[in-house]
Write a structure and sequence with these properties.
The chain is mostly helical. Helices cover 75% and strands 0% of the residues. Helix 1 runs antiparallel to helix 2 and helix 6 crosses helix 7. The longest helix is centred in the middle third of the chain and has 33 residues.
C-alpha cells in the first residue's frame, strides 16, 4: 500500500518554498498564506505523493489563488447589485438628495444599537414601550438609547440641539 509524503520531506518543502509560494499566490489573491497552507495540507494527504511535489504545489497554489480571486469578484458583484437594489432609508421629502445622503451616511456610522432605536422610533413611529418590547429591554433603556442615538446623529451631522429636536419632531 502507498504511503503519504515523508514528514521530514514535507517540513523541508515548507521551509524552503512557502515564502516563494506565497509570493506566487499574491498575484491573484489577497489571501496567499491560505492558499499555501491549503496546498501543503493537500500534499500531506496525497497517497501516493506526487513524483514532483514542487511543481504540484505551484499548480495547487495557483488554482486555489485564482479560485479565491474569482469568488471575491463574484461576491463584490453580488454585493454591488444588492446595494443598488436595497430600498433607500428615506422616502422623497423636502430634503435634497445630498441631505438624504448625508443623513444616511451619518446613520450608518453610528452604533447599530442606537441606529435601530432611531430608525424604529423616528421613521417607524414605535413608542418607547414598543421599542422596549422589540429590543427586550426596559422602557428607560430604550429611551436612553434613543437620546444617545440622537446625540450621535447630531454630532455626525453638526446639527445643534434645537434643530435636531425640530427634525425628529417633524419626521
Amino acid at each position: 500500500m502507498a504511503e503519504p509524503i515523508d514528514p521530514a520531506e514535507l517540513e523541508q518543502l515548507i521551509g524552503a518554498h512557502s515564502a516563494a509560494l506565497e509570493l506566487f499566490a499574491a498575484q491573484w489573491t489577497t489571501l496567499p498564506e491560505d492558499c499555501v497552507q491549503e496546498a501543503f495540507v493537500r500534499l500531506a494527504g496525497q497517497v501516493p505523493p506526487p513524483d514532483q511535489p514542487l511543481p504540484w504545489l505551484y499548480r495547487v497554489v495557483r488554482n486555489r489563488a485564482i479560485s479565491l480571486r474569482r469568488a471575491a469578484e463574484r461576491r463584490r458583484r453580488r454585493e454591488s447589485e444588492a446595494a443598488a437594489q436595497r430600498p433607500q432609508w428615506f422616502v422623497a421629502t423636502r430634503w435634497s438628495a445630498a441631505e438624504l445622503q448625508e443623513v444616511t451616511e451619518a446613520l450608518a456610522a453610528i452604533d447599530a444599537q442606537l441606529r435601530e432605536v432611531l430608525v424604529a422610533r423616528i421613521w417607524g413611529g414605535l413608542s418607547f414601550e414598543q421599542l422596549a418590547a422589540v429590543l427586550a429591554v426596559s422602557t428607560s433603556t430604550a429611551h436612553r438609547r434613543y437620546e444617545a442615538g440622537l446625540l450621535r446623529l447630531r454630532e455626525r451631522l453638526g446639527v445643534p440641539w434645537t434643530q435636531a429636536r425640530t427634525m425628529s419632531a417633524t419626521n
